[in-house]
Write a structure and sequence with these properties.
CATH topology of the largest domain: Rossmann fold
Number of domains: 2
CATH class of the largest domain: Alpha Beta
Number of strands: 15
Strand content: 25-35%
Helix content: 25-40%
Structural class: alpha/beta
CATH superfamily of the largest domain: Response regulator
Number of helices: 8
Length: 251
């Protein structure tokens, strides 16, 4: 069983390699990387069966790293020092996860289960499973993330879950909230786009960004539009239809 380790800590890499060598002789570590950017480039050539992946890395966390991988994907075993909200998504979609410091008994059991799975010729995670993992983590990020916007009284810290959508109005942006309040901010929608797209939001038109967590209905016939939970209907431009279909996993 061929493995790759990706972890920004060299100490953690050496510790895991030592435990694999001592307790999991069926595992061959092909390579290890402390730079996730380099690892993403090399993995397609190395074609490992399993990837031991650190969650918390400074340049690119484990979930952002997964978005860089191309199919076929190896099985993913996350290795993390943090038993936080992301574990919920990991449990449901990844093969398994190990908490640091890695327990030798748990490592041995996890590797044995994976070895049995690979022996049964279910050799790689499906693209759908990986995409589901990424979507789950994006949604969990959105549930805990917030954004600061300037209002007349000062700065408001707004949970992203309370935002239904954004509308571009010249050099201003109008925010629409779940309590049906609206706020006009003197920044362009582009100032918020990069951050929001990492948290389950999507631009569906040059003038509209929506929170996918509040999407109720996507009407695709003739002129495309979406209906949000507040009852608002927003046009989907032709060039954004593909992006929306991919996010919604529409074939």
């Amino acid at each position: 069983m061929k493995a790759i380790i990706v972890d920004d800590s060299l100490h953690a890499i050496e510790a895991l390699k030592a435990k694999l060598g001592r307790h999991c002789p069926q595992v061959e570590v092909l390579a290890n990387f402390s730079d996730p950017v380099e690892a993403a480039l090399e993995i397609p050539c190395l074609k490992p069966d399993v990837l031991f992946l650190d969650v918390e890395m400074p340049r690119m966390d484990g979930f952002e790293f997964l978005k860089q991988l191309t199919a076929p994907h190896p099985e993913i075993i996350f290795v993390t020092a943090y038993n936080h909200y992301a574990i919920q998504a990991i449990r449901s979609c990844a093969f398994d996860y190990l908490e640091k410091p890695v327990d030798s008994k748990q490592l041995k059991q996890t590797v044995q289960r994976l070895y049995q799975k690979l022996q049964s010729k279910m050799s790689h995670s499906t693209d759908n499973a990986l995409q589901q993992l990424i979507r789950s983590v994006d949604q969990l990020h959105a549930q805990t993330a917030s954004i600061s916007i300037s209002v007349s009284e000062g700065i408001s810290i707004i949970p992203l879950t309370s935002i239904i959508r954004l509308e571009s109005i010249s050099n201003y942006t109008r925010f629409y909230f779940t309590d049906r309040k609206e706020v006009l901010v003197s920044k362009t929608m582009g100032d918020y786009e990069e951050y929001l797209l990492k948290h389950n939001f999507l631009r569906i038109h040059r003038s509209h960004i929506i929170n996918l967590g509040h999407l109720m209905h996507y009407h695709r016939k003739n002129e495309a539009w979406v209906e949000m939970k507040d009852g608002s209907k927003v046009e989907v431009s032709d060039r954004r239809k593909k992006d929306l279909a991919e996010k919604l996993n529409i074939i």
